[in-house]
Design goal:
This protein is mainly beta and 813 residues long. The chain contains 5 helices and 45 strands. The chain has a 22-stranded antiparallel beta barrel.
């Protein structure tokens, strides 16, 4: 069916337009600023090249703007050079007929004297944040769309990086260097945001579908360790995401219809006499169509969701600063009805076979940022925001038994088991000041203040006896509480000093104070980078880090209504990373890193057990721990290698691999494998583009990805205790001792893009798990006396789309 749909799109919409394409051009324009001071640079030379031949060029005006007209569609190289600064070179910029290319270029000052001609410059792959010297990866819109299997999702795209594992097809949770996914933080335009994913549970940082559209992103960073002092309340990784400004000269739009949703994207100017702009994206789910077509998405339920993002930008004439207003929101609903499934062979990735579940979730963020250019060396940025995360669940227990033949179930009874409503509202104030002291030195300092207002309503009707072997601790209780206001204050300061063009250091200090538990932390950070050859460098980074627990866990109550965990301290960790980089032939990058991470102050049980809270943060069930104490530990160690051939000569390829070991210690003093200790992750991916048509204006892209990693770890169930409690109970002494078969997945991506005068058409399909390989996700407990179900991950999944980019002329709105 998916092939038929693609064939119809191709024949009816694409070929008639592309067959008569004429010479088509587009505009390439943008702004060039000093990377550290944000001040515009006047008189910068900008050139557009194709196959080493200069097509055209120009210089920036008094506001740092440049504009180059009549650039033929296709891929071009952009070069910017300025005396006293390192040369900027960005290869293979994609020029389409449907959208202008608008670039925001940041030039880095050279420590060499201004009389010298500096030939070294920014290389492809260097991160946006100049104070992140290692364990950092830049990503862009084009990358999220280029990688096979990424589905336009920044989180799934990040699984291509070394040290990052995502071997759960049903969710986009990220395991970074063996850490729990709840150690990952999302920061968007300087604001820490709730989990930006659909169907997200409390205490998780992932979900089934990303809320944030990749088309809203400017170049952003993903940091996997030893991050600078400006980042706090994270122990595993940081998504430092930047939303782009809309086109401030002409309206441009995108309409897309695909397996994951119907989308409308737009950007353009606000008013005819200003440089203000808007950008937005709206999506409504179409997964139901896949279910009706018989495609296996892991469940027979029909998930529905919708999301919306926007950003308004208003430049200020007086000081060169601006005001921007942004918002992100998403809402999702799914009902898992298993009581009508009487076949033992039914596979449900997301639901238990002995429950009917009705789940809703949502999140929203709205904020405003004021940037003030104090002078040509300094700027101040102030951001205020309000956010909320919401989840509601109602669960009925289904009792069934096998027929004498064992080929079907008989439904015995249904009764209400539990329900909850979690609502966590957060208000944020963030202030950052950056001062470029000289070409050698710059300083950045600021503070983030967050006020939390959580509300929890929880009711559980089943009453098992507490037992050390229980994986989660639930009790007969009702909780209906507004917990008041609580504050997290995080000041920081960091200083970058370039000793010369070869040697740079960053030193910083991060502070953190949480009013609920009266927890505080002062965390030193340090990194150094030595560029001992023009194409090679060594770097070292270290520091201490701390993080809150998933917020609702502070307010869980025992049967007497006592909140035993309000006193819990931060989770704390120490990072040490050593890295080596080499660039070959300007388009090949090899990076190797070795790391060590020690975690302490980890909440564990008050009685001897294997339980450690770092095993949480993924899956589909909330975990309600009993009374915990900060006496557990964790340790992650590993090595990583990335070999990447950047997109040049119409193809790219990348290999990333990591070997690691992740261990945890429970309250019994014994060290165990963590849930996430797969030991290795290997990725091999690439894409080739072919030009097509008389004037070679159109492209066909073919890409693929192979992932091979250690299997999911599991703990066997204690069948006797599980039968007694009528719920799954694991064997405590065998925590994560066993491992399923290794994970393997092949993804294939095809796309076809054609350019006409005002339109760019693109049709494509991402075939996830193209071989249909059966990766094991988990064992599933069905009920007393019944065999365990072996649950497999998503099978072959075709994710197809048709996209139309177009513009409406020079008329402004």
């Amino acid at each position: 069916m998916a092939k038929k749909i693609l064939r119809v799109f191709f024949l009816l919409f694409i070929i008639p337009y592309c067959a008569f394409s004429q010479q088509i051009t587009q505009i390439v324009r943008g702004t060039i600023i000093d990377k550290e001071s944000n001040s515009p640079l006047i008189g910068v030379s900008v050139a557009i090249l194709r196959d080493s031949v200069i097509i055209t060029g120009g210089v920036t005006d008094e506001k740092g703007n440049f504009r180059l007209d009549k650039i033929p569609v296709g891929r071009v190289n952009v070069v910017a050079s300025y005396l006293g600064y390192k040369k900027y070179f960005m290869p293979n910029v994609l020029v389409n007929s449907g959208k202008e290319v608008v670039m925001n270029i940041e030039l880095e000052a050279s420590v060499a004297t201004k009389e010298e001609v500096v030939i070294s410059g920014k290389r492809r792959g260097e991160v946006v944040n100049d104070m992140a010297m290692l364990s950092a990866h830049e990503f862009s819109i084009e990358e999220t769309e280029r990688y096979a299997g990424s589905r336009g999702d920044p989180a799934r795209m990040a699984t291509n990086f070394a040290g990052v594992s995502g071997n759960d097809d049903s969710q986009n949770n990220l395991v970074v260097r063996g850490n729990s996914p709840f150690g990952v933080m999302y920061r968007i335009d300087n604001v820490v945001v709730p989990n930006p994913n659909h169907f997200a549970g409390e205490g998780e940082t992932g979900g089934e579908v990303a809320i944030l559209s990749d088309r809203m992103l400017s170049n952003s960073d993903f940091l996997t360790g030893a991050f600078p002092a400006e980042f706090g309340d994270a122990t595993a990784a940081v998504f430092d995401i930047r939303l782009k400004n809309g086109n401030n000269e002409r309206p441009e739009f995108t309409a897309q219809l695909g397996a994951l949703g119907a989308e409308v994207f737009g950007e353009g100017p606000l008013g005819s006499n200003t440089k203000s702009s808007f950008i937005f994206n709206y999506r409504y789910s179409t997964l139901g169509a896949l279910v009706k077509l018989g495609v296996d998405i892991g469940t027979n339920a029909i998930p529905t969701y919708q999301d919306f993002q926007f950003k308004l930008n208003f430049p200020l004439k007086k000081n060169g600063g601006d005001i921007s207003v942004f918002g992100i929101g998403g809402y999702s609903v799914v009902n898992f009805i298993t009581s009508n499934q009487l076949n033992p062979a039914v596979q449900e990735i997301y639901a238990s076979p002995n429950t009917d579940e009705y789940f809703k979730a949502g999140m929203g963020v709205v904020g405003a940022t004021y940037t003030h250019q104090d002078n040509e060396h300094e700027y101040t940025k102030i951001t205020i925001a309000a956010s909320t995360q919401y989840s509601q669940d109602s669960i009925n227990r289904v009792i069934r038994s096998l027929t004498p033949s064992g080929k079907s179930y008989i439904l015995d009874s249904i009764y209400h088991l539990e329900d909850y409503l979690f609502l966590n509202t957060r208000y944020t104030l963030s202030i950052t000041h950056n001062d470029k002291l000289s070409s050698h030195s710059s300083i950045r300092y600021g503070v983030s203040a967050e006020m939390f207002e959580p509300y929890y309503k929880y009711r559980h009707l089943l009453e098992p006896d507490l037992n050390p072997g229980l994986d989660t601790y639930k009790w007969n209780q009702q909780m209906n509480t507004t917990t008041g206001f609580h504050f997290l204050i995080q000041p920081y300061i960091q200083w970058k000093y370039n000793i010369n063009d070869k040697l740079s250091t960053v030193m910083g200090l991060h502070g953190q104070y949480f009013t609920l538990s009266n927890s505080w932390s002062i965390e030193p950070r340090f990194s150094i980078k030595w560029k001992f050859k023009p194409n090679q460098s060594l770097a070292f980074g270290t520091g201490t880090y701390s993080q809150l627990l998933p917020f609702y866990q502070y307010f869980t109550q025992d049967t007497n209504g006592v909140q035993n965990n309000r006193h819990l301290d931060f989770i704390r960790s120490f990072h040490a990373v050593l890295g080596y980089d080499v660039f070959l032939k300007n388009d090949i990058h090899i990076k190797a890193e070795a790391y060590y991470q020690l975690l302490w102050n980890i909440p564990v049980d008050t009685f001897p057990s294997s339980y450690n809270i770092l095993d949480e943060g993924t899956g589909f069930d909330l975990f309600f721990p009993g009374k915990l104490v900060n006496k557990g530990m964790g340790r992650n160690v590993g090595i990583e290698l990335t070999v990447e051939k950047y997109f040049t000569h119409n193809w790219f390829a990348m290999f990333s691999g990591s070997l690691y070991d992740s261990k945890l210690q429970g309250s019994n003093g014994v060290w165990y494998n963590s849930d996430f200790n797969g030991h290795y992750v290997l990725n091999l991916l690439g894409t080739k583009e072919f030009k097509w048509g008389k004037k070679r204006l159109n492209t066909i892209g073919i890409g693929g990805k192979i992932t091979f990693s250690g299997g999911v770890r599991y703990t066997p169930y204690d069948t006797t205790l599980s039968k007694t409690h009528e719920m799954p109970v694991v064997t405590d002494s065998l925590r994560d001792k066993f491992e399923f078969m290794p994970y393997f997945r092949l993804d294939i991506k095809f796309n076809y893009r054609c350019n006409t005068k005002r339109f760019t058409h693109e049709v494509g399909i991402d075939i996830v798990n193209a071989t249909g390989y059966k990766n094991i996700l988990r064992y599933q407990y069905v009920g007393p006396g019944q065999p365990l179900n072996l649950i497999y991950q998503t099978g072959l999944l075709p994710v197809f789309y048709y996209r139309l980019d177009f513009w409406l002329g020079k008329k402004t709105w």
